[in-house]
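All the exercises in this workshop are built on plain-text protein records. Sequence and backbone structure share a record, each on its own labelled line. The structure tokens are whole numbers drawn from a learned vocabulary of backbone shapes. The record below serves as our worked example for the rest of this section.
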Amino acid sequence: MITTNDVAKVYDTVLSIPGMSELVKIDLKISRKEVLLLSHVISLGINQKETPSDLLKSIAPEELLGMQNIAQDCLEKAGLVALNEKLTSLSEDCK
């Protein structure tokens, strides 16, 4: 049976493959709605405290920061930073 440690080793191995750190250009056209949802999903995944996935457990904190930066960059390019902040504040007020 495969253990959590085995899964972490596999993820670490895959992420260490030569070329995985190379930058790639992605030409992506998505709606503002999808940008907002993508940013939210990234944030939820990164901030998940209960049972994070084995992949997230094996990622260095600076790489997670890179994902947050990607989400923020998408929001900026779509002109949704202020709206996202207000929606986040609103949802936090409901907790």
User: Anything to note?
Assistant: The helical segments are 4-15, 32-47, 54-57, 61-78, 81-93.
